[in-house]
Structure formats: structure tokens, C-alpha cells
Design a protein that fits this description.
single chain, 158 residues, alpha/beta, TIM Barrel, four-stranded parallel beta sheet
């Protein structure tokens, strides 16, 4: 039997979509986030991608709390480019929590003219620390910052 759209046009082979959802390990109300995540899994989520992770220990605790749901987890990693970028992520991006220690580390590096290198080092440290806990990482960088993404990939591939 041929597969056709509503207008009778053939559509060929069916797609192979998978249902992915977002989850926020640094949510202000972790209890609410865990409740919503459980609902998403119950509704058919097949994998989850997190908001950017800037605190490996907080993430480790979060993973323990969602372990029972047993769907693949992909961690978001965002290398910070400057102190301004760190402050923006910490203060202006809803749902993203950047620890004060990371912001301060970026401020010191910015003052020394090595912010991008420090941001990459932080991303690599976090990626290496959480890699055993997840099934993959998703790296977000500025459009022209492919070298930063490749630098993080080196850390998780080793």
C-alpha cells in the first residue's frame, strides 16, 4: 500500500524521527524540573539534552536523581569566550546557572588577556568530568569558534 499525504501525493518512506526533550540540571526549582522530566519520559521522550553545564558536581547529583528514567542523556557544553560572556550566561540566560567561581575564573583570565583559552579549559574540564555520566555531548559555540568546539571534542574523545 502506497503512503500518501492528505492531498493524495506520495510521501515515500516514513521518517525516522526520535523524540528528544530538554532538561535543566541547574533549574531554580529542581523538584519541579524532575517532575516535568518524569512526565516527558512518560509521554514518550527517547533522549534528553541538557542546558549548558558549568558545574560538574551539580550535574553528577542531577544524573543520580534521573537515573531511574533510563533514557540517553546528552549534556550541553558551551565554552565561554570572555568574562562578559560568562556574566551574560550567568545573569541573562534563563535556566542556565554559572557558578560564581567560574565567572571569577573568567574575569581573572580576561584581565590577563587569555579568556578564550580559559573558557576552553573550563569546558574541557567539565566535559571530561561528566562524559562518563552521559551518552553524548552537544557543544554550542559562536558561529566562528569551530576551534573551541574541536578543542572540547578532543577532551571527550580521549
Amino acid at each position: 500500500m502506497a503512503r500518501v499525504a492528505f492531498g493524495g501525493q506520495p510521501i515515500g518512506q516514513p521518517t525516522a524521527f526520535h523524540i528528544g526533550v530538554a532538561v535543566n540540571p541547574g533549574a531554580l526549582s529542581l523538584a519541579e524540573e524532575l517532575r516535568r522530566f518524569a512526565y516527558k519520559v512518560e509521554a514518550g521522550a527517547e533522549f534528553a539534552i541538557t542546558q549548558p553545564v558549568f558545574d560538574a558536581e551539580e550535574f553528577r547529583e542531577f544524573v543520580e536523581r534521573i537515573r531511574e528514567h533510563r533514557i540517553p542523556l546528552i549534556a550541553g557544553i558551551t565554552p565561554l569566550e570572555s568574562a562578559r560572556h560568562a556574566e551574560f550566561m550567568a545573569n541573562e540566560v534563563p535556566g542556565v546557572r554559572v557558578p560564581d567561581a567560574v565567572v571569577e575564573r573568567m574575569r581573572r583570565a580576561d584581565a590577563d588577556g587569555r579568556a578564550a583559552e580559559e573558557g576552553l579549559a573550563i569546558a574541557r574540564e567539565i566535559a571530561a568530568a561528566i562524559r562518563p555520566l552521559v551518552q553524548g555531548v552537544q557543544i554550542s559555540t559562536a558561529p566562528k569558534a569551530i576551534d573551541m568546539a574541536l578543542g572540547v571534542i578532543e577532551a571527550v574523545s580521549a
